[in-house]
Design goal:
Layout (H helix, E strand, L loop, with lengths): L5 E7 L2 H14 L3 E8 L3 E8 L1 H15 L3 E7 L6 H6 L9 E7 L2 H14 L3 E7 L7 E7 L1 H17 L3 E7 L5 H6 L1
Antiparallel strand pairs: 1-3, 1-4, 2-3, 5-7, 5-8, 6-7
Helix pairs in contact: 1-2, 4-5
């Protein structure tokens, strides 16, 4: 059996359309609902996980149901395994080396950027924070040696920037250790 390491997400400008799109996503294919909720700025997001074909069909159905309310969507066929715990807030980082922060106007663009970042260089994702208490924005934090964090941030920023959603990107070479306490 193919592992269910593919995810799809739809970000919508309407809560009502979000419920409708999520229902269509779940009725279309055998996917697991990872997250569906209203987010800041009156938006809604729905994220599913499953086999690639099922996730693609699910997201297509959700985009069709969401119509004009769809802000952004994606399917990532082979999501890096460290993205799941970072989204769930369960990633464990023992030491803070260089700190990288990538910030996006879009939840969807940020997750795609985080996946690209962690695939581009040897970094540990600390957290992916999605839109809550952020005015609809999202950000990812990561750590590793300076060169790896710089490469990861550039790779992630290229994806997010390519969608016109980049807010900011920062690499802090020697952050104070107290910052790690603020992230967990």
């Amino acid at each position: 059996m193919t592992p269910a390491n593919s995810i799809g997400l739809i970000e919508l400008s309407s809560v009502a359309a979000g419920y409708q799109a999520t229902d269509a996503m779940l009725k279309t294919a055998a996917v697991e609902l990872m997250l569906a909720r209203s987010i800041c700025s009156g938006k809604y997001m729905a994220m599913v996980r499953g086999e690639v074909g099922a996730v693609e069909a699910s997201v297509a159905a959700g985009v069709g149901a969401g119509k004009f309310s769809v802000i952004d969507s994606f399917v990532i066929p082979n999501l890096h395994e460290s993205v799941f715990p970072a989204i769930g807030g369960t990633a464990k980082v023992e030491a803070l080396e260089a700190l990288g922060i990538l910030e996006s106007f879009s939840v969807a663009a940020l997750i795609e950027g985080a996946d690209a970042a962690v695939k581009a260089a040897s970094v540990e994702l600390i957290e992916i924070r999605l839109a809550m208490a952020l005015g609809g924005k999202a950000f990812v934090t990561m750590t590793g040696d300076v060169a790896a964090v710089e490469a990861a941030i550039e790779a992630g920023a290229a994806v997010v920037g390519g969608k016109g959603m980049l807010v900011n990107k920062v690499v802090i070479p020697r952050p104070r250790p107290e910052l790690l306490n603020e992230m967990i």
